[in-house]
Amino acid sequence: MPDRASAKRPLRERRPPGAAAASPAVPAGARPASPTRATGGRTPAPQRLGVRKTYKLFIGGAFPRSESGRSYPVTGADGALLAHAARASRKDARDAVTAARAAFAAWSGATAYNRGQVLYRVAELLDGRAAQFTAVSVQNEGLSAAEADRAVAAAIDRWVWYAGWPDKIAQVAGSANPVAGPYFNFSVPEPTGVVAVVAPAGSGLLGLVSVLAPVIASGNTAVVVASEAYPLAAITLAEVLATSDVPAGVVNVLTGFAAELAPVLAGHMDVNAIDLTGVGAAGVGAADRGELERLAAGNLKRVFAADEDWAAPPSPRRMLAFTEIKTVWHPVGI
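and the corresponding structure tokens:
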């Protein structure tokens, strides 16, 4: 029979070894402790994963996926994954040429003043998205914020510079030629046609603008192979062009491997000229300038390649490289 002292002691709850102790009971009418008291009344924000983009191509004013379904990772200077870019195929390159050819007649036939106004509108949109381009340059190219800001500002200024040229090219490159006879003789620059452009591999927006703007300012249409390592500036520029006044097909942007796409464009019979600036003297991948020039000779393509300091002031040379001179004779007095 238990003694009187043991009968007054409360019984302890027996629990298996290692089991956690039960929470103390909350007295009636008392408010349970809030989980936010430890954080000063603020609910901690849940951790979420970033949304990785898979960018598309820009062909004929639309954003299709590569017909091959392929993509490749785009990384920052620190190796971190930023996004995935579409890896264009040979068929995508051919589709881009078809779109550029379809747009050529209307773009080259527009008045020079109108082309200049359209290009200036692109510069306005670039300026409105300058902060986005700066962020892309910092992430993708590893530039400092100050360096990226200067490069983006220079790219916008350069686009404005080329926007002022369409109605001045004929005055600079054209002429009235003295001839021995009762004739007027005029030399007039005209656009070459569809121009394939391999963008500089080591430069983002500034290098791209430096090779693309002179091509379309002189009335040509373009198929651009973006930088393989730094494609985000080209894709963002395509988004700007899609919302501007530039007609569909005037600019077509392919992302992927230059070694795969450049030979297709160099050998394409409906491409009138090719800018190989983005192909270094040592070549890109399996293709080099010599091989691409040999392919371009199949239809007597005009070939241009000039390694430049993109920070240096531009010149009309790139515009004139993609124009042809038409000479017109007209009898006097008729």
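(Above: one complete record from the training split.) Residues 54-331 form a domain with the Aldehyde Dehydrogenase; Chain A, domain 1 fold (CATH 3.40.605.10).
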